[in-house]
Structure formats: C-alpha cells, structure tokens
Amino acid sequence: MKIVYSDRHRVHRGEFEIYRGELVPCFEKPERADFVLAALRSQRIGPVVEPRSFGLAPLERVHAPRYLRFLERAWREWSALGQTRDALPAVWPIRGFRDDVEPRNVVAQLGLFSFDSGTPLTSGTWEAACLGADIALTAQALVHGGERAAFALSRPPGHHAGPDFLGGYCFVNNAAVAAQAFVDAGVARVAVLDVDYHHGNGTQAIFYERADVLFLSIHGDPATEYPFYLGHADETGRGAGDGYNGNYPLPAGSSNERWFEALARACARIRGHRPGALVVSLGVDTYAGDPISTFQLDAPEYRRLGRELAALGLPTVFILEGGYAVAEIGENVAQVLAAFDEAAGAR
Ligand code: FKS
Ligand code: ZN
C-alpha cells in the first residue's frame, strides 16, 4: 500500500514533558518516524508519496476555529514573553471557571486549550500539525480514489486532540480529519477503530453525538491508565450518536488473548455499522516492550492484527498514533501493514 510521508515533521521536536513532577525528555520524538520509514522500506512496503496541501478547511470541520487560531499564533506569543524553551501549560480552568471568555495571556490560553502538561508546543508545532493533517488527507484521498488502503506516516499523533483542545502529544486529530473527509466526500457511514494503548478521547469527543461516524477504542482501563478521565465502557454516545461509540477498556498488563477478544468484538460492531470506509488509529504502544504502556502484545501479534483488519474488507486508512519502543515500533507497524496487504491480495 502507499505510504504518505514527508520529512518536514522534524520541525516539531518537543524537548521535555512534565512527568510525575519532573521534566523528562519527550517520548514522542522525530526518530519514531525514522524507524517506521526504515522498517517499511526494508519490508518493501510502499511506494512512499509526498502529501498534498489541503489548507485549513478540512481541519475546521472537526476543530473549533478559535482553537486553530490559538495553535497558529501560540508559539509567537509565547516567544514574545521572552521564552525560548517549549511552551507547556501550568494552569487550567477546571470546573467553575469560565471557558467562554478567551484570556489575552498566552499562558492562560495554553491552559484553556489543553488537558495535560506533557505536550510541549514548539516553534514548529503548528507547521508539523498541519503537515500531519495533510498526510492523513492525502491517504484518505488515495483510498477514496480507489486504493484499498493507505498509511499516513505522520507525527505528531492526533487521537487525544479534541474539538478545542490539545494533549497527549496531539494537536490536530488526523484520524478525525480523515474520517470527516470521507463523510464530506459522500461516504454515509464511516468507522474509526483506535488500537493505540491509550483511549482516543479526542476522537471520541469529536464524534460523540454523531451516528454517521462509529468510534471504537481498545485501550488501557482509564481507572489506572492515561488519559484517565474518559474511555469507560459505559460511554456509548449521546443524542443522535447514542449507540455509535464503543470503548473496550482492558486491565493494565492484559495479554494478547484478551486484547484479540476485544478486537473481535470491535470488528463485529464495525461489520454491523456497514461503513463505506475504515480509519485505523494505529498505535503500537500495545507492544510488550513499550516503555510507557503495559499490554503484552508480542511482535507476531501485529501480523494477526493486519490480517483481521483486512478481513473486514473495507477501504482503509491507517494513521500512525503512539508507540515508543523506538527500535521495534517500525517493525510492528510494518508487520500490520504487510499482513494487511497480503490478506488483501496486494502482495
Ligand atoms: C509517560 C507519561 C505518559 C502521556 C501519554 C501520551 C500517549 C500518547 C499516545 C499517542 F498516540 F497520542 F501518541 N503520558 N512518561 O500514545 O496515545
Ligand atoms: Zn498511545
């Protein structure tokens, strides 16, 4: 399958994140993409194509304009304070505060539009986030144009970014942008399956009240795992979207049997939705060797994942999300895509 990639993602390179009261080197680093690209090349998955430019309109379909305007200007205003380090929030309008009045101070704006202090915003963040969306949209356009599947090799990731907030290394929700692009191209029903270790709270928030985009996520139980405040099994959608959101939280440390049981249930739901397209938020931080996650998937399980996704028989856009065992992340992603291609008869 085609890989959509550009090396301009490098302009986003967060230095530190706050973790348990300490500044630690950011886990989400440019080298992640290098490992993925290298593994895809050695498995002869490709060709690699450059993204096209889609502008801001497709982002505005899933994000609030005032949030996008904030992302665009945030670094400028932060550096005007004399700061040279990455921007990290330190104050948030929790329950009882006003979130309808936009503060003029960029420090306050950072808190208004974010939910954690682990997502450094840098001089290149806006450019890289837009590039990531262009990569997702290019992959979507390829698949809408008749390709069985395409892989958006983008970073920063997107699935924690909601209608008007950043967090979890995410700024623009690439999977949501791609799913919305299918809807806008006339695909009546779309499914988004999020297999990253962490709940896709941003994607859930974006589609929570909608019946056209089914969102399903398999992830570490939010009772103990990041992002903590969303991702429980009783979140099934609201209003018109009631019944179109499905969460499969699994206990920390879950084995691959347990994980694939959840996948089978999610795939049955997808079949029932009869979507015209599938978007997969592909995080491989479910890997047993991942440094920040606890599931126990072994390398061969990624081939199984690829086969089971291919068996859905749907036009599929894969979007890179998390995965931090940097040497292995590439291999695991490549196994998913290679097995998908083989099962789909493309190899
Ligand atoms: C480790 C602390 C973990 C943040 C975890 C963020 C996970 C991000 C992700 C994404 F796909 F978005 F990249 N805190 N020091 O993997 O879900
Ligand atoms: Zn993750």
Largest sheet: 8 strands, parallel
User: In which order are the strands of the major sheet placed?
Assistant: 4-1-5-10-9-6-7-8
The ligands found in this model are: 7-[(3-aminopropyl)amino]-1,1,1-trifluoroheptane-2,2-diol, zinc ion
Radius of gyration: 19 Å
Q: What fraction of the residues are assigned to beta strands by DSSP?
A: 5-15%
How far from one another are the termini?
9 Å
* Number of helical segments with 4 or more residues: 10
- Give the averaged pLDDT, no decimals: 98
Q: Could you tell me the number of beta strands? A: 10
The rough form would be described as globular
Q: Determine the fraction of residues in helical runs and give it as a percent range.
A: 25-40%
Label the structural class: alpha/beta
Low-confidence stretches: none
H/E element order: EEEHEHHHHEHEHEEHEHEH
